[in-house]
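Kindly inspect this today.
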Amino acid sequence: MSRDPQRAATQFFGGRVCLDFANTLDWRTSADPQELIPDYAAFLGWCGRRRTLSPQAITALELIARKKPDAAAAAQAELLSLRAEIWSICDALRRSERTDLAVVNALLAQAPPQPPLVRTGGSYLHNLSGKTLSEPLWPILWSLTAVLTSADASRIGCCQANGCGWFYVDESPNRTRLWCSSEVCGNRERARRAYAKRRKKVAGKGG
């Protein structure tokens, strides 16, 4: 994560679509969290960067959202509600606790079967047309289903940097990953701890 919201909105450290979506609140566990998808248009931008929707579907949804701002706001509220559910699920998984899947299962019951895949821009996407404002939610749900029904569910980690709270799948051999990113949060946290240690040493000498 980064204190620059524009940069943070392009950082995908979770390893899975649903976790990267969960990480769209920067500094999640701090006293001053930063919203990275403040509205539906911003969320569609995230979908484009994370490649969960094709450019054509995004363009179609942007047009619908402009014509139906109230419906777009309702879709945004549903997305943020799902994000909160993913937080709760991930926190339970990393503590090896049971989690309530009622909300997720209700959303899955409303979602269509997964569509065929298409190759776009060198990668594969679900072939979604952009006809309904709830479409961007579906790839996130399908990703969450894949996590919950695989070994990923036992490898959910949460960044230990002060205030971060971003989730990831810990694929390290001994499950010892501590940071969403060693280069970002890891470096920042190591520097913070080193500074605190130096101050403590100086304070000790002063006493």
Remarks:
- The longest strand covers residues 117-120.
- Residues 5-206 form a domain with the Jann2411-like fold fold (CATH 1.10.3300.10).
